[in-house]
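Module 6 notes. Inverse folding takes a fixed backbone as the condition and produces residue identities as the prediction. Think of it as a translation problem where the source language is geometry and the target language is the twenty amino acids. Below is one complete input and output pair. Work through it position by position during the lab.
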């Protein structure tokens, strides 16, 4: 059974990702009353794409229940299918589409081209898989993808003896000349630009002849929870993984068990909805919240109270209540001092919230998000300042000063987190027009429908 390909702006398998409702873009709706909304969200992109890779390398078929169906996950499916993996959609019990049955091939075959789009997980997780295939596999992606750092994966595979031709660019496009096996063993890389470099090598390492003994050589390592997520996914499939010291991971060679997996809702995608409660007033509840998780979005429970919110956790429901209104009708949102080194993907939405706060904020530990879908620090500063804000770029973050904002265009830079940040600003500022709301299809095709549901 074939899985449909993404095609902006009409991609709409289980929700909506409407490109425009004006000539210039999507006019962000203004909150006209306090919210009282209960929402369910589709599956985690980070978990879905990790489990797709592990299922493709497993020793038998696996079923992923409630996976995310989005541009990123479909690009991952297409890439793995090109290497020989079988995929079948089967009816799911959830409200966001089908489950997927993954059948590994007896022998991975290259001699193909993989379109990475703008998906960091695809461009980084699949080259080590392609190294295990027979034949050349060429990787390329969107224009923005060619500017995303890849050196940790490229140099890491080359150091392991993989024939990888990138014309010394350190970025897409490149070709992996797979021989059907990777020796593995000791390896040192600098993963300062992305924790995905580490996850990419760990995911395929059980299939390396000697596994891997991987060390990080850089001064800092961002987004550690994502590496912890990778480790937990491996261990759940019976893989022996150790981290004997910070910045070192040892994966033993061996089989990857075929198991059925329930994919958690995407907690990072919960951010704009929970933030909306502080901007619009009232409350927003997300259902299906896991009791224990390695997802970065779980940090929202501790982060949003620092802005003045009250967070209530009840079984599998998390509710965010807005702070009391301040003097003169202000929203009562407090300025903050944050270190988001472990939760950088939450930064765009939290910076948008800080732009509506009563006091100044400083958000640090996020220099690495300059290398995400776009330079998010420069993009946030440009767009908020373009609406009258006062945001200053720092070496490792942003300084946000209170300022009245006004109507105007908001550029998304083909970045889903930038698009949702524009929607947050638009709740409070009439006339904000997001040029590319369809970019949310990268991880949440249902964004506009869920946003309207929340406001209704």
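Target side of the pair, the amino acids:
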């Amino acid at each position: 059974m074939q899985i449909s390909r993404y095609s902006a702006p009409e991609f709409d398998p289980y929700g909506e990702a409407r490109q425009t409702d004006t000539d210039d873009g999507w006019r962000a709706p203004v909150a006209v009353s306090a919210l009282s909304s209960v929402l369910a969200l589709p599956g985690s992109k980070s978990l879905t794409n990790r489990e797709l890779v592990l299922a493709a390398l497993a020793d038998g078929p696996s079923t992923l229940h409630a996976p995310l169906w989005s541009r990123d996950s479909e690009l991952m499916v297409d890439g793995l299918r090109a290497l020989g993996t079988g995929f079948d959609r089967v009816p799911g019990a959830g409200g966001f589409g089908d489950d997927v049955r993954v059948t590994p091939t007896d022998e991975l075959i290259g001699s193909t081209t993989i379109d990475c789009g703008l998906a960091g997980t695809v461009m980084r997780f699949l080259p080590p898989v392609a190294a295990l295939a027979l034949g050349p596999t060429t990787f390329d992606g969107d224009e923005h993808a060619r500017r995303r750092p890849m050196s940790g994966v490229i140099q890491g595979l080359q150091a392991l003896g993989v024939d990888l031709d990138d014309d010394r660019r350190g970025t897409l496009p490149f070709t992996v000349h797979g021989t059907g096996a990777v020796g593995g063993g000791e390896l040192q890389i600098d993963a300062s630009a992305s924790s995905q470099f580490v996850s990419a090598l760990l995911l395929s390492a059980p299939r390396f002849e000697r596994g891997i003994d991987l060390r990080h050589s850089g001064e800092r390592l961002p987004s550690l929870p994502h590496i912890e997520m990778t480790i937990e996914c491996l261990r759940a499939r019976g893989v022996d993984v150790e981290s004997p010291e910070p910045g070192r991971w040892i994966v033993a060679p061996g089989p990857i068990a075929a198991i059925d997996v329930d994919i958690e809702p995407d907690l990072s995608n919960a951010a704009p909805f929970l933030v909306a409660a502080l901007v619009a007033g009232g409350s927003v509840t997300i259902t299906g919240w896991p009791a224990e998780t390695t997802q970065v979005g779980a940090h929202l429970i501790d982060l949003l109270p620092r802005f003045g919110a009250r967070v209530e956790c009840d079984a599998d429901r998390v509710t965010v209540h807005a702070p009391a209104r301040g003097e003169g009708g202000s929203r009562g949102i407090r300025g903050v001092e944050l270190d988001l080194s472990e939760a950088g993907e939450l930064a765009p939405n939290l910076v948008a919230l800080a732009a509506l706060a009563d006091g100044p904020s400083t958000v640090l530990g996020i220099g690495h998000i300059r290398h995400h879908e776009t330079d998010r620090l420069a993009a946030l500063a440009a767009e908020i300042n373009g609406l009258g804000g006062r945001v200053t770029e720092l070496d490792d973050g942003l300084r946000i000063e209170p300022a009245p904002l006004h109507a105007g265009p908001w550029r998304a830079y083909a970045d889903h987190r930038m698009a949702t940040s524009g929607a947050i600003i638009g709740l409070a500022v009439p006339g904000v027009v997001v040029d590319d709301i369809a970019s949310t299809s990268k991880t949440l095709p249902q964004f506009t429908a869920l946003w309207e549901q929340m406001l209704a």
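Reference fact for the lab report: The chain has two domains: 26-42+266-455, 45-262.
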